[in-house]
Amino acid sequence: MVLPNTVAAVLPAALNDLGVTDPRLAASAFGASLPAAAAAVPVAAAAARRLSPALVLMAGLLLLGAAQLAGGAATTLALVALVRVLLGLGAGAALAGLLLYAAALPPRAARLLCGWYAGVLVAAMLAGVVLAVPADWRMLLQPYPALTGPALALSAILLWTQGGLPRRGRPPARADRTLASLPLPPALGLSLLAYATTLGWPPPVRLTAGVLAVASVLLLGYAGAADRSAARLGAAPAAAMTGILAFPTVAVVAQGLLRYGPDALVWGVLAAATGTALAAGAVAGALPGRTTALAGYVLVIPGLVMLYAGLGGPTPTGPLDPGPLPIAAGTVLLAAGLGTALGAGLAGTRGPAVAYALAMLLPGTLAGCVLAAALNASSANPAVLWTIVAAAVAAAAVPGLAAGPARHQR
Question: Which residues of the chain are under the pLDDT cut of 50?
Answer without folding.
Answer: 165-169, 175, 229-231, 405-410
